[in-house]
């Protein structure tokens, strides 16, 4: 009998493919000096001082033990108050769970609510970590195509056309990663009516909801009539408070769902970092505007810089109303996106990723890039991109 290898012992549903093109680009970038990376969603600005000071204080006061599985009571109360004030959501503190980033919220949500064979409707392009979580639960992702001509906003008629007797859940990410699409309020209302008519759970990922541009408006589905009891709202502190490394998110949902999620969550991690929770409590205790407004202005300037370059290069795009990412169409170059990304890295020393890594069938047409570099570096990256494009013409 042949010896059993470690690979043979891996569960079939979590085996990964060969090294992805994204991984190959990252490996290449590690060997190239002076690369300007425009790929990750990690803000380049730092966590505000008063939040860091709160973490120090918690350490000094020996707050080193577990919290309740759902999180610090003071924090869930503060989150509930913020959601009510900013988004009109009526979640009680006991309907909120503090998680280790939104990633854990996604995973616990899927494990708690999906049965094998359940179908989950999601737009594409999309953040593909959802696919992994759904596949681990033996669910099925049903892709709903979005279109550049409609600013990559998921259309209700496209959703309804894909609803079957096995459809359990609809996931809405707004603002979206990677396209920057912000679902307009009237479309959110139409999607909510679909969820009600077909008895679907609606998962609303709102991690970028406080990063909006050019008058874009965010509407939380759970604020709509009769949607509280069927909506799971996901959000966190990473993007809006520059706290990516603190790994703190939260989910809010009706009590019946939350009780189920708590059972699963206790198995996965018991609770989120106590120190990070005290830091988050400080984040919510002070007004955000005094320190965020200058960052918002900087982000708007960066975004304008990149969009101007894309326009000059004849790269088209859907309107990016929120978040940190842009999703330009580079078909005017006449080469696949993967080849352009490789050339831009090797010749221009700028790292971006092909859109085919983002759950899209639009192979070769799009690239994903962020605005998360200081303006001087971003301007230099745009100069390098222009030179690279000129070398290809």
Secondary structure layout plus pairing:
Layout (H helix, E strand, L loop, with lengths): L20 H10 L5 E2 L11 H12 L12 H15 L8 E4 L1 H13 L5 E6 L4 H8 L3 E6 L10 H5 L6 E7 L11 H13 L3 E5 L25 E6 L12 E4 L2 H14 L5 H12 L3 H24 L12 E2 L10 H12 L1 E2 L1 E2 L12 E4 L4 H18 L1
Parallel strand pairs: 1-10, 3-4, 3-5, 5-6, 6-7
Antiparallel strand pairs: 2-8, 7-8, 9-12, 11-12
Helix pairs in contact: 1-11, 2-9, 3-9, 4-5, 4-8, 10-12, 11-12
Question: Can you give a write-up of this model?
Answer:
The chain has 393 residues and is an alpha/beta fold. The protein has 2 domains: 20-37 and 290-392, Aspartate Aminotransferase, domain 1 (Alpha-Beta Complex), CATH 3.90.1150; 49-285, Aspartate Aminotransferase, domain 2, CATH 3.40.640. It has 12 helices and 12 strands. The strands form 3 sheets. It has a 7-stranded mixed sheet with strand order 2-8-7-6-5-3-4, sandwiched between helices. Strands 9-12-11 form a 3-stranded antiparallel sheet, with helices on one face. The protein has a two-stranded parallel ribbon with strand order 1-10. β5, α7 and β6 form a beta-alpha-beta unit. The mean pLDDT is 93.
């Amino acid at each position: 009998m042949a010896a059993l290898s470690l690979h043979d012992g891996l569960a079939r549903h979590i085996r990964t493919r060969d090294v992805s093109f994204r991984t190959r680009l990252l490996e290449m970038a590690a060997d190239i000096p002076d690369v300007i990376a425009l790929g990750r969603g990690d803000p380049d600005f730092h966590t505000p001082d008063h939040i860091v000071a709160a973490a120090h204080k918690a350490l000094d006061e020996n707050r080193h033990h577990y919290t309740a599985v759902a999180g610090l009571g003071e924090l869930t109360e503060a989150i509930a108050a913020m959601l009510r004030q900013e988004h009109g959501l009526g979640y009680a503190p006991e309907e909120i769970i503090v998680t280790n980033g939104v990633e854990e919220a996604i995973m616990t949500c899927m494990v708690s609510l999906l049965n094998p064979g359940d179908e989950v409707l999601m737009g594409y392009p999309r953040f593909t970590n959802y696919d992994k979580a759904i596949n681990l639960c033996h669910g099925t992702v049903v892709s709903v195509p979005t279109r550049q001509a409609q600013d990559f906003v998921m259309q209700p008629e496209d959703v309804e056309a894909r609803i079957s007797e096995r459809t359990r859940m609809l996931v809405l990410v707004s603002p979206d990663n990677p396209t920057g699409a912000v679902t307009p309020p009237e479309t959110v209302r139409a999607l909510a009516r679909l969820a009600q008519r077909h008895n679907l759970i609606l998962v609303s990922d709102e991690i970028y909801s406080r990063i909006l541009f050019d008058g874009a408006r965010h509407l939380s589905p759970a604020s709509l009539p009769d949607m509280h009891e069927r909506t799971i709202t996901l959000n966190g502190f990473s993007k809006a408070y520059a706290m990516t490394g603190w790994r703190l998110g939260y989910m809010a949902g009706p009590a019946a769902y939350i009780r189920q999620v708590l059972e699963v969550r206790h198995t996965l991690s018991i609770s989120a970092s106590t120190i990070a929770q005290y830091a988050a409590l400080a984040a919510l205790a002070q007004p955000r505007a005094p320190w965020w407004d200058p960052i918002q202005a900087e982000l708007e300037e960066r975004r304008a810089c990149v969009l101007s370059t894309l326009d000059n290069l004849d790269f088209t795009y859907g309107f990016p109303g929120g978040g940190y990412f842009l999703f330009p169409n580079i078909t005017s170059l006449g080469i696949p996106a993967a080849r352009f990304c490789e050339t831009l890295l090797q010749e221009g020393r700028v790292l971006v990723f092909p859109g085919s890594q983002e759950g899209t069938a639009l192979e070769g047409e799009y690239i994903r890039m962020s605005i998360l570099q200081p303006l001087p570096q971003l301007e230099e990256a745009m100069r390098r991109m222009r030179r690279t494009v000129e070398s290809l013409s």
